[in-house]
Design brief:
Layout lengths: L7 E3 L6 E6 L13 E5 L5 H24 L11 E4 L5 E4 L4 H21 L4 H9 L19 H15 L8 H18 L9 H10 L14 H8 L11 H20 L22 E3 L4 H7 L17 H12 L5 H5 L6 E3 L6 E5 L20 E4 L2 H6 L1 H9 L20 H8 L1 E3 L6 E3 L1 H4 L5 E3 L5 E3 L4 H10 L12 H8 L15 H12 L6 H4 L2
Helix pairs in contact: 4-5, 5-8, 17-18
């Protein structure tokens, strides 16, 4: 069992575990040259997956033995290595010495790579080499694709496809599109006019090596893409490198463009299979901390509403006043609050419970379609009684008087389509001024709360508007409902719209029992903040 873990792999898209078994080298010709077999273990639980992977491994070993014993004897199985070099030429090596065969195969690949480098600027000779094949008829050599197109042109077409059709049948948000486009333009700069079907496995391997050393924010440092690549190709460079998450974004878009090129017939081989995108779901680059009770006293002082900073046309006093309070007593996400319309504040006719309707249907006040982070984000959030006492419903009625704008907070989107970015900057910004004299401070910084820092071990932490969500969740843990039952994690997830666990109960409809449970959980949120307690 000590080596069993290497036969267990995880699907980065679905979190399902797969069993992986290496095929003995002598049997690979009977499996069309495949190096391994894989099978879904139908579980995301690692403990269960280990048991199933072991059973799958044992089953495969039994089948391998049966295949070897079938026929006259095992010696009838060809003892050779088949390999295809960078030009698509098939080589067969049979020396009855596995170690020597590996050495020969390695040399064959190195020789092919050297030829490619030698004639990379001579298209005529390079084309002849690409047509060569020592073990197959000429017509089975690497064929020209249906359409010959440069990498640059393929990227432009792919970006157009993302803008019009989305990805995997799903429309992309403006922010996601801009992020994808930025990464794709990088690859366009890397490959330029190189025909996309000439992208080799050697090139992809080299890219995945030097990309780990690409300087972080290189354009802000005044580097061109070419300069940044040269820096990255030097293993001894001293520049801070991009994070694993950023590297995954770059490689994800490289993989995407290669998949698209293959599906469109721009390449005859699916090179995207050789791009390994790191799984960053479990990686925390920055830890977001909740607010402490002391922090909340500073954020909501007895004169709350006075120290809101300079007036801004797109961010009036009411927005700065209500946004933090709503987040504090609901745990709702910034964009969920930002896209609320006045008619999203509803009253249930059966229970008279007042709630905020978070939905991904309809349009926001600025005419843009609403979005929800995930399926369980579509939910009603009862309005906490403290908000009602403070006068939230009066504010809603005030906004309803504006017949031209139905939005609750009259926010303007930034160039990435985010409604709450301006509010987020106002709340926790901490940046050096352009002239280098001092810093631009957000609301919590002015109130004496550090918005970012590092632990002694070097890991970074932040406190931002999103900290309200962590604060509300932590506040609920260990609390009891009026009936004496402890609030469960699934109850918190129901109210917060968590994706974790695929909580189907968070879905659709505003039935009476569900809304009453949500209200009971919301009302359990309580803070020892004098301004709120003494009202």
């Amino acid at each position: 069992m000590a080596s069993q873990s290497q036969y267990l792999i995880r699907n980065r898209h679905s979190n399902q575990w797969y069993g992986r078994v290496v095929i003995p080298i002598l049997l690979r010709p009977l499996f069309e040259g495949k190096r391994e077999v894989r099978r879904s273990l139908q579980t995301a639980n690692k403990t269960i997956a280990k048991r199933r992977a072991l059973a799958f491994w044992l089953q495969c070993q039994t089948n391998f033995e049966r295949v070897q014993q079938d026929g006259n004897s095992v010696v009838n199985i060809p003892k050779l290595i088949r390999t295809t070099d960078i030009f698509g030429r098939l080589h067969e090596v049979d020396l009855n010495d596995p170690e020597m065969e590996k050495a020969v195969v390695k040399q064959l690949h190195e020789d092919a790579a050297a030829l490619l480098h030698q004639y990379k600027d001579n298209p005529e000779i390079l084309n002849r080499l690409l047509q060569l094949n020592t073990a197959q008829p000429p017509q089975q050599a690497l064929a020209e694709p249906e359409t010959t197109i440069s990498f640059k042109e393929a990227v432009d077409l792919y970006i157009d496809k993302l803008n019009t059709q989305g990805r995997k049948g799903k429309k992309l948000s403006q922010r996601t599109l801009l992020n994808y486009q930025g990464r794709l333009i990088f690859w366009k700069d890397v490959f330029g006019q190189v025909p996309i079907h000439h992208v080799t496995l050697k090139t992809l391997s080299e890219i995945q090596n030097w990309l780990t050393r690409l300087p972080v924010n290189y354009s802000k440092q005044g580097f061109s893409t070419d300069k940044a690549i040269k820096i990255a190709q030097n293993p001894d460079n001293k520049y801070p490198a991009i994070s694993d998450k950023t590297r995954a974004e770059y490689l994800g878009q490289l993989k995407g463009i290669l998949e698209y090129a293959h599906s469109c017939g721009f390449t005859t081989a699916d090179q995207s299979r050789h791009v390994e995108v790191p799984n960053t779901k479990q990686i925390k680059t920055v830890e977001r901390l909740p607010f402490t009770e002391d922090d909340l006293v500073k954020i909501f002082p007895k004169d709350y509403g006075v120290d809101f900073g300079k007036k801004r046309a797109a961010l009036d006093w009411d927005v700065r006043y209500w946004f933090p309070l709503i987040a504090l007593f609901s745990g709702a996400r910034l964009e969920e609050i930002g896209q609320l319309n006045t008619d999203d504040i509803k009253t249930c006719p059966d229970t008279n419970i007042i709630y905020m309707n978070i939905t991904d249907s309809g349009i926001s006040g600025d005419g843009k379609r609403k979005h929800a982070k995930n399926k369980n984000s579509v939910r009603p959030i009862p309005v906490h009684s403290t908000l009602i006492e403070i006068g939230f419903l009066d504010y809603v009625e005030k906004r309803k008087a504006d017949k031209k704008d139905k939005s609750l907070f009259k926010l303007k989107r930034d160039n990435q389509g985010r409604l709450g970015k301006g509010l987020s900057n106002w709340f926790s910004r901490f940046e050096k001024r352009p002239n280098g004299n001092g810093h631009i401070l957000g609301y919590i910084e002015r109130r004496g709360i550090a918005s970012k820092g590092r632990y002694e071990t070097g890991e970074r932490w932040t406190k931002t508007f999103h900290s309200f969500r962590h604060t509300a969740i932590d506040n609920l843990r260990g609390k009891k409902l009026d009936g004496g039952q402890f609030i469960r994690e699934q109850d918190i997830g129901l109210v917060m719209g968590h994706e974790k666990g695929k909580l189907e109960t968070a879905s659709y409809g505003i039935d009476r029992s569900q809304l009453e449970l949500r209200q009971a959980v919301i009302e359990a949120i309580q803070y020892q903040v004098p301004w709120l307690v003494d009202r």
